[in-house]
Design brief:
Helices cover about 30% and strands about 25% of the residues. By secondary structure, it is of the alpha/beta class. It has one domain: Rossmann fold, CATH 3.40.50.150. The chain has a 7-stranded mixed beta sheet with strand order 3-2-1-4-5-7-6. α2 (about 50-55) packs parallel to α3. The protein is globular, with a radius of gyration of 16 Å. One of its GO terms (molecular function) is methyltransferase activity.
Length: about 200
């Protein structure tokens, strides 16, 4: 597996993981480019850590990756540490080797994240539960953005606790970008119609 820059990463063997395609990764990085410098990035169901590595290469100052599979989590940690230590600006890296549902039920009192990327197993039944837990505490900063990757043939409804900012489709994978409702009430950014075209 390679990053958009060409850097090679370690990748878990077998078919138990579904890495985000380079097309989707590049689209995400283009969408959030103005937010990446010095951001706090949370990667849920991180797998090999490829998305967080892309964020580090573009200036994220802090990355937290959550992955319950011990083998994937170890590979994720190695990838993140290597990328974080290779640039002129080092990022803080934390890899959480725990079940996502259990980890999100903690009493979160730390600084919120600027960007959260959520790419669970498509058939894992994690979307609704995770979005509810994220909405219950200050995981996302008021002006932050939560990006969910989901199968294009299964439209994702984030529920009333979130405001949809944008939607994009890239073949069999789609993205929905959501924010906390109070942000939209404050700056009016929910007036923009979601996009569904394939361009980033």
């Amino acid at each position: 597996m390679r990053l958009i820059s060409g850097r090679r990463l370690l990748s878990p063997r077998g078919s138990g993981t579904r890495p985000t395609t380079s097309r989707v990764r590049e689209a995400v990085m283009n969408i959030v480019r103005p937010r990446l410098l010095d951001c706090r990035w949370l990667d849920l169901c991180s797998g090999s850590g490829v998305m967080a590595c892309e964020a580090i290469e573009r200036g994220a100052r802090s990355v937290t990756a959550v992955e319950k599979d011990p083998r994937c989590a170890s590979i994720c940690e190695r990838n993140l540490m290597e990328v974080a230590q290779s640039g002129s600006r080092r990022a803080d890296v934390t890899v959480v080797k725990r079940d996502l549902m259990i980890w999100l039920q903690q009493d979160w009192r730390q600084e919120g994240f600027d960007l959260i990327y959520f790419d669970p197993p498509y058939d894992g039944g994690l979307y609704s539960k995770t979005l509810s837990l994220l909405a219950n505490q200050e995981w996302l900063r008021p002006d932050g953005l939560l990006i969910c990757e989901h199968p294009s043939d299964q439209p994702l409804d984030p529920g009333g606790q979130w405001t949809v900012m944008d939607r994009r489709r890239y073949g069999s994978s789609s993205l929905v970008m959501i924010s906390r409702p109070e942000r939209c009430r404050r700056d009016g950014t929910d007036s923009r119609q979601p996009r569904t075209d394939p361009e980033a």
